[in-house]
Automatic annotation (TrEMBL):
This is ABC transporter ATP-binding protein. The keyword NAD does not apply. It comes from the Bacteria. Residues 4-245 form the ABC transporter domain. Gene3D superfamilies: P-loop containing nucleotide triphosphate hydrolases (3.40.50.300). The lineage of its organism: Bacteria, Bacillati, Bacillota, Clostridia, Peptostreptococcales. GO terms for molecular function: ATP binding; ATP hydrolysis activity; transmembrane transporter activity.
Amino acid sequence: MEILKINNLTKVYSSYKGAKEVTALDGISFTVNKSEFVGIMGPSGSGKTTLLNILSGVDKSTSGETIIDNQNISKLKKDNLALFRRKNIGYIFQDFNLLDSLDVKENISLPLILDKKCPDEIEKRVDNLMRFFNIENLGKKYPYNISGGQKQRVAAARALINDPKIIFADEPTGNLDSKSANTIMNTISKMNNEINSTVLMVTHDPFAASFCKRIIFIKDGKVKMEITSDGDRKRFFDKILEVQSVIGGEN
Ligand SMILES: Nc1ncnc2c1ncn2[C@@H]1O[C@H](COP(=O)(O)OP(=O)(O)OP(=O)(O)O)[C@@H](O)[C@H]1O
């Protein structure tokens, strides 16, 4: 079942103060099916951030369609788009985006509180997710009193609290040391493998990407190549390095 469908997406940044017009996305099309874990890779400037901004509704495409769960979000007006995002999309950002004024449990509950869900249901869902991510004893702590790896798990629990159709992860290993990077990637894999979450992750990092089941490589705003994992992470990692050496992209 298709969860995300991108149809011939283009994004042209118009010229500004003498700078030239830039075609950041040049007719990208792909689909992501339910329960897939797909990575988007590509060299610096290839259009990854632009793509993620359009997919998550932060920015508008110049032409083409973005369809999430059969809804064409390119056509939604601002308020409806904000509501659609809150109900259907989960986000995991590089810098966690946790609120320091709320404790861990409140941070995870926030999307449900905004949705005016009943307190009993909120309590049940939050407790389940805290158990799932092994953070059940952190509920009363504040983000500045927990480790980077714990913050990532809190962020993952918050991303899942609304039972979203798809999760967008933006460079989740960005600023992390290798141990925390391993923790967050195991966490995202667990979401994908054990509760069948559909995940689209943008990353520079071949280690993070090796956890994906499929990777779409983009360059100059176009899809250049696609590779699929046979389940062996080491072999997939080597394959990613090989593709990067051909199309370019940092290791
Ligand atoms: N707001 C903007 N105005 C004009 N040009 C932009 C803007 N944002 C991005 N670009 C240009 O669009 C192209 C794609 O940029 P984008 O940030 O999507 O690439 P990226 O793959 O995310 O790069 P990186 O890996 O370095 O973050 C680049 O040429 C960039 O300079």
